[in-house]
Amino acid sequence: MNDTRTLFSLNALPRLTRQFLSGMCGIALCLGVVSTSQVHAADELAANAINAIGDFTVFRTDGIQEQLEGKGSLPLYEGDRVKTGKGSQALMEFTNGVQLALNEDTDFLILSRWEQSKGFTRVLRLATGEVWVKTMGGPKPLEIETPVATAAVKQTEFNLKVEPDGQTTLTVVEGIVEFGTAFGTCPIRTSTISYGNRGKKCTKPAPTNVSPNVAWTQGIRQ
Amino acid sequence: MNQQLRLTTPLLIGVALFTLANLTGCSALMPTPKPGGLNTRVYTANESSNTVTVLDGDNYKVMGDIDTLNYGAHDLALSRDGKQLWVTNLANGRVSVIDTDSLKTIASIYTGTRAHVVALTNNNKHAWVANITDNTISIIDTSIYRILGTIPVGKGPMGIAFSRDGKYAYVSSQDKMVNVIDTTAHQVIKQIPVGPNPHFLTLGPDGRIWGTNTGSNDIYVIDTTTNEIAGTVEVGPAPQQIAFALKGTIGPNAYVTVTGLNKVVVVNATSPTLSIREQIDVGEEPNGIWANAVGTQIYVGHTKSNNVMVVDTGTSQILATLPVGRKPIRVVASR
Questions:
Q1: Which residues of chain A approach chain B closer than 8 Å at the C-beta?
Q2: How far apart are CA A206 and CA B29, in angstroms?
Q3: Can you tell me the ipTM of this complex?
Q4: Which residues pair with residue A92 across a beta bridge?
Q5: What is chain A's Cα-based Rg?
Q6: pTM across the whole model
Q7: Which string of b and e fits A76-93 if b means at least 16 CB within 10 Å?
Q8: Which of B22, B24, B216, B230 could bridge to B223 as Cys pair (CB 3.0-4.6 Å)?
């Protein structure tokens, strides 16, 4: 009547066994905490696409394709590939507060890097096209890879354009961007432009009018 | 109260022990110091267990396994100072970086679909990773783990090796070619026709690039001054990987794992023309192979029996057989 003992009750076991199991549980608990450190976050929300003009398609890792038309909220995950068509644009917000606009004919992958000392860094692999990026609400580590260079930022606003041959043009609207190729790194500051070409160090920053690099985003950001 | 104490004390001891083990970097994996600076630590990439097994190559002991925190550990590259071990993970396209002091994975970088092999540039500043499905080589800065460029190459890049002077990188690809890349321009400047499914590539002690045609039964060497094939020799079906070692006064010799024969075939590496010197019986499906720094022992991984055999190259006798993780593809040893 009062027998509430279950098969896995600790009280049903000898004292030494209970102590041993208790100790092992402590170790297992710690191991569990450590081993849950994932080095890729495929199922974690990375961003939301919130506006699209024209053709904007997301290619999921399992082959599923989804589209956004007009304003809305389309979740984006690690490993997703996003593309805009001719005359199309899109706007997305990353979960870490980075806002990103895609110009026409843009194609990139959403990735990440994990380091024991730093945790996750959001990485975007821009195959071709043009993006405008603005970090909001404090420093946000973000890197954009192109076929010939990588732009690493924390708190800035910039525009990055990749030609079909990989040539990359970086224009910094505000802040500082660490722009590097395999042949050297150049810090690029507010209102300057630099080019990355295959087999060469990025060019020295030159003053430029940044207005056109922001103007194309006005429609999609409204 | 006493009952609670009896239960919670061992729990706290367990937590303390685990914390201590973590802080000290897993002392069970620490190497045994050996005078003369010739300690040989051997690593295997175990594709099906997603781990790297660490072996004491001098005392023939298993030191432990390291979780790569990724899937499909396939190839390995060890930095010259032995501090960093780079691991490709075929299944999820990422590269793991292992700190060989703490024996832990410290970084994970996505390179491309089916990341196959990794090679470090001669100055160790960059890691080059071949992505089979993307037909690209990713170039990673080894100090900040950032990808700094991507080089398009032939279909299905499989193996990478650098010339002695570092001016050229050689990339074998599934279109039966070896792509020659000018490392100062990151451009493919030549394609050298080789055989079916060219796979492994390595720099030989003669300064030539040695490669296997895994889809065939031969190996080849490339003269890096002309970037032409300088010789080939048939070694048996499905040759896999190559290491260089000595047999007493004879050598250096190329030791080739030949999966179809379950043998290591020894090829003369001292003359311009290639010839077979001997064959050594090993286990089933030998694949990864590496020699110790002084060239007196080779370590042969077997993908079927999940072990590494230590072979004395002086007598061609097997000295030890050590269990490793499932499907060891690659074996490397400290210099």
A1: 10, 15, 18-20, 22-27, 29-31, 34-35, 37-40, 111-117, 123, 143, 145, 147-150, 152, 166, 180-182, 198-199
A2: 53
A3: 0.76
A4: A49, A100
A5: 24
A6: 0.82
A7: bbbbbbbbbeeebbbbbb
A8: B230
